[in-house]
Design brief:
heterodimer; A: mainly alpha; 48% helix; globular; B: alpha/beta; Rossmann fold; Luciferase, domain 3; GMP Synthetase, Chain A, domain 3; 3 domains; 5-stranded mixed beta sheet; 5-stranded antiparallel beta sheet
Chain lengths: 63, 502
Amino acid sequence: MDFTTAKDLVTGGILDSFDIVSLISEINEEFDVTIGAAELTPENFASAETIYALIKAKLDDED
Amino acid sequence: MQNNVLDYLNESLNRVPTKIAYADDEVQLTFSDVKNIMDSVGTGLINKGCKREPVIVFMKKSPNTIATFFGVINAGCYYVPIDSEMPATRINLILDNCKPRVIICDDSTVEIAKGFDYKADIVLFSDIVNTKPDYEALSLVRKKAIDTDPIYIVFTSGSTGVPKGVCACHRSVIDYIEQLSETLGFNEDTIFGNQTPLYFDACLKELYPTLKFGATTYLIPHSYFMFPVKLVEYINEHNINTVCWVVSALTMISAFATFDTVKPTTLRTIAFGSEVFPIKQFRLWREACPEAKFFNLYGPTEGTGMCCYYPVTREFADDEVIPVGFPFKNTEILLLKDDNTLAEDGEQGEICIRGTSVTLGYYNNPEKTSEAYVQNPLNTAYPEIIYRTGDMGHINEYGELIFHSRKDFQIKHMGHRIELGEIEANVNLVPEIKLSGCIYAKEQGKIVLYYVGDITEGDLIKALKTKLPRYMLPNKVNRLEEMPFTANGKIDRVTLSKMYNK
């Protein structure tokens, strides 16, 4: 299992609801961005790449 | 008098045989489907010679699994649900405790079951469901039914590292379903959206009232609980009007401001429990669902599901706690002080349960049973067992029960009941570990583990994944050079908590 390349974090059952909730609070602490319900989609959390893209988009928004 | 939970099905079967009883995204079962599966599985087990014994149901969450539970009861046996999410070590402990002869699997679990150290007769659901029902044999079993015979064993966290199997009978489940249904107002139009797993007693709230009223239960796929907008849309699409969820499933929706995008329009009864509902989040829910009634439920597995309820009607300040409320009819709460006398109003005492709702005890575990299921100290005249919850509480000025804290190191995390001692016991089984201490950071909702030993944090977590269920894995792991101790030589959890909060 390689988290950097896996594309099925959600559909593969690798992330579960506990993980998502703690992941979001970690992201919030680390990058100071707030992820809202609308962004909380299976697509945004499918892989490390999509999560990165989401955080980046949020950071860019705030600039 | 009804003495078997399966009698609930009779009326619904006559009235609405073709109505959907249980459904998920893959399988839909009508009441007559449930009856057919239950009779085939029941006959299959009788044919194997099963009689008043535990039968393991190792299937993924599905309407078929529920019908299989009823099949086990139909054979006069009791079901023991296990799940592929449980790590192998834990499953082996459960099998050692129950010593089952039969394990019912589905295609998703059969290979795992073949790898268990414990050897039993592994039966596929897809095979046993094709058994030709032997109605004569089934009715003979039903005729001999006793309402104090067990119907299930569910396993809960044990502080020594060995899970405890809480064993409940027909009578306590019937009592619970009657009181709960009356209090929450379930009826034939009730459409449940189930959130809780089938391997705990929490799902009793949906499973049996559905049979009793000819209602419908949707098993909401687990993945929806990660994506609140999709979850609320699912509720609306399926016209779900009743949910009995753990608090964290509800706050997950409100905390992400889901209601700005979509509101649940069909919900009329919202029951929650297992944890304290933060008032701020609760208000968001009440604003989003002004027509719904809200109930706080409280109760340990040992008291069969829930034993207290509180309809949330008055306003609460941000720092107030929603009361646990009042015991269900036919249940009494005794608040016992250290000297086993009753606490006066306002005084703290241990919450003890008296009544039919008290379960039979921990399966094959007389020691642990005798610690918590005890003779009522207020009654010396005849045998009467009460259950000591280990929860401390008091009665407030409105006569409502308020939960305070635990006497021991049991915690509630994401709706799960966990003994910190069980986590530590499993950490200490890792060969490199010298010492470990676990705390719960309540505000952050995190299980924090401190340890001394020659292993990296990452490797320790990897090792723990084979021993502990996912929800029990520490959220933060910190390696220490030295463990702080109290004057008595115990691991100093107060210092550990301070270290974490720094």
